[in-house]
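Private note to self, pasted from the team thread so I don't lose it. Backbone tokens:
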């Protein structure tokens, strides 16, 4: 089956996995007090996936770098949300650990992708 550009990226596949995991971190039945955190985590984790996809679909390195940077910002936001969940003892440690490992890896990969696009643009200017 043919793949879209984003689907070829490891970071995209990890982001989809994280988003799926994020939906399990705060189950809807936990109460209305947690609804804002759950909603924020859902929006930020979806943003990672969508911005990676949009960046992968762009042609120019600056466009790609911009969307990968936005995705990275959403990923670091998810990291902060994970910190709040564990500080408030709202998530089990094994689930937190898995989510934390994924989000750290996603941030690392997005940082490299954005840097690579910036380097490519600089090399083009120097030609």
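Design output:
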């Amino acid at each position: 089956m043919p793949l879209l550009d984003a689907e070829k990226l490891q970071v995209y596949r990890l982001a989809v996995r994280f988003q799926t995991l994020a939906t399990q971190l705060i189950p809807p039945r936990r109460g209305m007090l947690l609804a804002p955190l759950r909603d924020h985590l859902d929006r930020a984790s979806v943003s990672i996936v969508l911005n990676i996809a949009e960046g992968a679909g762009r042609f120019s390195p600056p466009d790609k770098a911009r969307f990968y940077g936005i995705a990275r910002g959403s990923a670091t936001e998810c990291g902060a949300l994970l910190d709040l969940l564990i500080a408030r003892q709202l998530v089990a440690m094994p689930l937190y650990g898995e989510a934390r490992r994924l989000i750290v890896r996603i941030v690392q990969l997005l940082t490299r992708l954005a840097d690579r696009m910036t380097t490519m643009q600089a090399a083009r200017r120097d030609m």
